[in-house]
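Sample entry was shown:
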Amino acid sequence: VNRFRSISQRQAWRLFWIQGVLHTYRNRMSSSSEAIYLYRSFLRVARQFPHYNLKHYVSRRAGEGFRKHAGETDAAALDAIFTKAKKDLEVAKRQSLLYGMYEAPYKSIMTHK
């Protein structure tokens, strides 16, 4: 039974692989390397959005969030922050897949160079 009827096989495999990578690295990284990994993941997901405004919104929100919590040292607070960031990353990944499926047939003037 194909659980991913509404998305292509390639997109389903990419989503499955990303979830596996996040699960694998969950307990292996120190907090600084995990923060860098999450931040770069947000930026990669932002590049996948087909719309200019969404790309910049996701990358801007990622930067704001990571700058806001840059000086945090409490272990319990860091765990809560990383948990929320991982959930937000999963939401952004799902949304980029959905926006990619329903992309407009024309490009925005902001994407032309």
